[in-house]
Automatic annotation (TrEMBL):
It comes from Piscinibacter sakaiensis. Its main location: membrane. This is Putative deoxyribose-specific ABC transporter, permease protein. It is a multi-pass membrane protein. GO terms for molecular function: transmembrane transporter activity. The keyword Protein biosynthesis does not apply. Keywords: Cell membrane, Membrane, Transmembrane, Transmembrane helix. The chain crosses the membrane at residues 6-26, 33-54, 60-84, 91-111, 141-158, 188-206, 212-232, 239-257, 263-283. GO terms for cellular component: plasma membrane. Pfam families: BPD_transp_2 (PF02653).
Length: 306
């Protein structure tokens, strides 16, 4: 039972990484913009967040720096894809490739750097409950913030006027423009906010999840987060559940290795990506279901004068 509690705790930790990035991408896509640059944004944010934590000793400043880095890269993407009407897919891929190279370049001085002693968090009284305490109440505050963010985003999208406008922009930007809403500015704001959340996720990886910096340490998590938005049919609560599912698969490989299960380590390492492919294949079999839930103008450019 103790081992299972630790597995649950690790699942929440790993799922938070994916949830933060996927919720950011969900905001983008609800506004009708596809940003494939999550991997690159997370990498740049990871190295900048780590460098900030090394030089200041503050994880909070590291998260702020990571969010700023992700937001700046997302803004560059937004200028190209939203205002200059470049192809969103090609621009996102270029951003991802840029992030991989740029993070490796600026991260060279920090490869051997180490952070100070990591703080330990727990909720008093609740953390002492057998099994439940170690599993759920000894987490980093960002784990609980991700849950609150999911609830808040669900309320925003389905219960607020601003959320309704955002969804309208993703469904029919022409109609929203005809009603007087600044479609491009709304999309730009959504893209920057989404990039900032990807940046927080990247900084969380390098300062909390695996407190170090190595080249390419995101290791495909940005792509999994992107797949999660489709897996969750663009709904925040499903994004969080999907993030925990994939986080559990990721942690399961380490648990099985620790238990001495005789399975090739390469296969265990591939489990999260195999799970991603299987889920996407299963979802794609029902094209009507995807079409009903997907924002109608997803990936389509908007020309105000047309």
């Amino acid at each position: 039972m103790e081992a299972f509690a630790l597995l649950l705790a690790a699942t929440l930790n790993a799922g938070t990484v994916l949830a933060l990035a996927a919720l950011g991408l969900l905001i983008n896509e609800r506004a009708g913009v596809v940003n494939l640059g999550a991997e690159g944004m997370m990498l740049v944010a990871a190295v900048i967040g780590f460098a900030t934590a090394v030089n200041t000793g503050s994880d909070t400043l590291a998260f702020v720096a990571g969010a700023a880095a992700g937001g700046v890269l997302a803004a560059a993407f937004g200028v190209l894809a939203i205002y200059l009407n470049t192809n969103q897919v090609a621009t996102g891929l270029a951003l991802s490739l840029f992030g991989v190279g740029f993070s490796a370049f600026i991260g060279q001085p920090f490869v051997q750097a180490k952070l100070g002693e990591r703080p330990r968090f727990e909720i008093p009284v609740l953390a002492d409950i057998p099994f439940v305490g170690p599993a759920f109440f000894k987490q980093h505050p960002m784990v609980y913030l991700a849950i609150l963010l999911t609830i808040g985003l669900g309320w925003f999208l389905y219960r607020s006027r601003a959320g309704l406008v955002l969804r309208a922009v993703g469904e029919s930007p022409e109609s929203a423009h005809a009603l007087g809403y600044p479609v491009r500015r709304i999309r730009m704001a959504a893209v920057i906010l989404g990039g900032a959340l990807c940046g927080v996720s990247g900084a969380y990886i390098s300062t909390v999840y695996t407190p170090l910096w190595v080249e390419g340490m995101i290791a495909g998590k940005g792509w999994i987060a992107l797949a999660l938005t489709t897996f969750a049919t663009w709904r925040p609560a499903r994004v969080l559940l999907g993030a925990y599912l994939f986080g559990g698969v990721t942690m399961l490989q380490f648990h099985l290795q620790g238990e001495g299960v005789q399975i090739p380590s390469q296969l265990l390492t591939a489990l999260p990506y195999l799970a991603t492919i299987v889920v996407l294949v299963l979802i794609s079999r029902n094209a009507t279901w995807i079409r009903v839930n997907m924002p109608a103008s997803l990936g389509k450019p908007f020309f105000p004068g047309s």
